[in-house]
Every structure is written in structure tokens, then in C-alpha cells.
Amino acid sequence: MPLSRRSTLTQFLIEERRRYPSASGDFNALILDVALACKAIARAVAFGELGGMLGNHPAEGGSSVNVQGETQKKLDVISNDMFIRANEWGGHLAGMASEEMDDPYQIPGQYPRGKYLLVFDPLDGSSNIDVNVSVGSIFSILRAPQEVIESGRDIRAEDFFQPGAQQVAAGYALYGPTTMLVLTVGKGVNGFTLDPSLGEFKLTHPQIQVPEDTQEFAINSSNSRFWEAPVKRYVDECLAGKTGPRSKDFNMRWIASMVAEAHRILMRGGVFMYPRDTKDPSKPGRLRLLYEANPIGMVMEQAGGRASTGREPMLAVQPTALHQRIGLVFGSKNEVERIERYHAEPQAYKDEASPLFNERSLFRD
Ligand code: AHG
Ligand code: MN
Ligand code: MN
């Protein structure tokens, strides 16, 4: 295949950096190391059963449980390892944290330490891996606290407790029919497609914008009996379609790979909800703030969409734990804002005499 005129990720980063002559280049090198980890994971995923990497970790048919209390797949552990190996040596990081590790990862003594923190979900949607449905990796880059950089001390969980608005960069790789890398460094969102013949990411989706309106929503409706009133109201109104208060029909999707849902929404609009619910009082939501909600939130907002807990902007939330869970709503701006409005005025819909709860609703109590 002839060399196309599309920028490679490397070229894109170098050209961006030329606008900031004082930049050290550390940041670009870090992004390229993250991209390398994603390429390695894409290869492992692509071999599927042939690579002997499907199934649970550690033994065939066995299972092991991560810090989240969730079953770890072999590929969860392999992907976590690939992220570490690709990023620990470069001298750009003060430490890392991941869904698959209880505590922060210290940069080994033989390598220099740097000024950034890398937080990641090495394989999102991994319950889909055995059925050959899209999965992905999600990453967030923060600045290490100044005191950590100056002292060179070991990293602590609290060093990662920064609101999403402080992310320097965020993005995800999607291992679907094609492998894509979607990246924001705080100036819009750019999408790159992996050219398998070159092993390079090429800029294919410059300055992605999420449509402000949508007729498509994504939620796991098997949880409907646990939803809070504002979520019930929103979904009921969507389901009521043309004859309901929204006066239009909605479509529904649920892949159970948040990264794949995020990508669909980025491409054609939509709204995704994994809201806070009453299923398990010890879990305020299903998804994790630092390596799922915040990076996807930054991507959405940088693409003109919105991300929220329902009650406040996602990127304003002050984290208090490394593996903190949170209610997450993101996607087309006008829909997310509507859901936020419903949260701000829940009493208006708690009226059980409401026809939407008692007659038309498929999700009534
Ligand atoms: P992970 O594979 O990293 O644990 O994340 C899975 C998440 C997310 O990708 C998806 O939206 C959600 O779990 C699926 O939840 P349900 O099992 O409730 O469908
Ligand atoms: Mn995940
Ligand atoms: Mn995961």
C-alpha cells in the first residue's frame, strides 16, 4: 500500500509540539509509549483463541478476583502488564494506577522518575472478550504533585486524587473491526486508525464533534428496579416515543463495553447512562471515576459533548479513593443536560400517581 498523506500519530504529536517550543518532548514520548501498549494489546486480542489468551485468569476454567471483586480475565492481566512494561522505563512517569492493581505502581529503581501519572483501565468490557465483541483500553494522564517530582518519593494513592478537569490528556484505544486510538490533549479530540500493514496509527478522524441531540440511549435496563426517579423518568419518556412528552421515537443500544459505547456516541451521538442506583448501597455506581468516568468525560467534553454524575459535572468531582465508583452519564449535550435537570427536580416526578409510572411505563415500580 503506498504511503498515504495522512499524519501518523508521531507526526501529529510533533506538529502539535512545534507550537510549544518550550515543551520538553516528555509528553509526546509518553503518549507514544501508551500507543505502543495499545498496539501490543490489539495484537494479543486479535489472536483470540489461537493465542491461548481467552478465558479467566489464572487457570483454564478457574477464576481470580481483582480488587473490585470482579473476575479477572487472562487478557485483563496481560493487558495490565503490557501497559506497565511499555510505560515504566521511559522516565516520564512518577507512577501508575490501574483497575487491575490494588495499589499504585512504583516506577522500579533502575528507571528515572518523571512528572506525570498514568491511570488506566487496561481492558474495558473484558466480559465481552470470550464472545469476540469489541473491547478497549482507557487512559488518563495527570501531573504528579510538585512535591512528588521534587522529592522523588514513592507515589501514594492520594497523589492521584485530582478532579478530572486537571487531566493533561486522556483517551482510549478500541479493539474492534479496526483498532482505533482516540486522544485529547485538551484541544479537541482526534481519532487515529491503526494501519495494520505499517503498525502505525494514522489520523483518520480529526476534530471529532458529538452531535448535540440524539434519539439513541444506552442503559442496562435489567437494573431498572434500582434506578432513581430522575433516571426512570428520562427512560420512560424515551420509551414513550412519538406519543410521549419527547414527541419522537428513541432507539436503544447496550454493548456492555463502555469504551465501545463511548466510541459510538462520539461518532454519531447518543447518551450513555450507568447511573447511581440502589442495587448495592456500598457501590455508588458501577463504573470507576479515575480510569473510566474521568478520561471518557474529558474526551466527551472536548468533543462538545457532556459528562456528568447526574448531579454535577463529572470533571468537577474530587476523588477520594483510587478505585472509587460513580454514577456516570455522558454523550450528546442536550440529553445529558436534560438528565441533569431531572436530577435537580426529582420531586416533580416522585408522584406515583403520574401516568408515566402507572400506565404507560414499562419500567414502573
Ligand atoms: P471492565 O471490563 O473494565 O470491568 O468494565 C466493564 C464495564 C463497562 O465496560 C460496561 O459498560 C459495564 O461494565 C457493563 O456492565 P453490565 O455488566 O451491567 O452490562
Ligand atoms: Mn472498565
Ligand atoms: Mn477493565
Task: Please explain how this structure is put together.
The chain is built from nine helices and 16 strands. By secondary structure, it is α+β, with helices and mostly antiparallel strands. It has two domains: 3-205, Fructose-1,6-Bisphosphatase, Chain A, domain 1 (2-Layer Sandwich), CATH 3.30.540.10; 216-344, D-Maltodextrin-Binding Protein, domain 2, CATH 3.40.190.80. Strand 10, helix 5 and strand 11 form a beta-alpha-beta unit. Residues 351-365 have low confidence and may be disordered. The chain binds 2,5-anhydro-1,6-di-O-phosphono-D-glucitol and manganese (II) ion (2 copies). 2,5-anhydro-1,6-di-O-phosphono-D-glucitol (AHG) is lined by residues 70, 99, 121, 124-127, 220, 256-258, 274, 286.
Shape: globular
Cα-based radius of gyration, to the nearest Å: 21 Å
Query: How large is the share of residues in beta strands?
Result: 15-25%
**Adjacency order of strands in the biggest sheet:** 3-4-5-6-7-8-9
State the CATH superfamily name of the largest domain: Fructose-1,6-Bisphosphatase, subunit A, domain 1
- Main beta sheet: strand number and arrangement? 7 strands, mixed
Count of distinct strands? 16
CATH architecture of the largest domain: 2-Layer Sandwich
Please state the structural category: alpha+beta
Please tally the helical runs, counting DSSP H or I stretches of 4 or more residues.
9
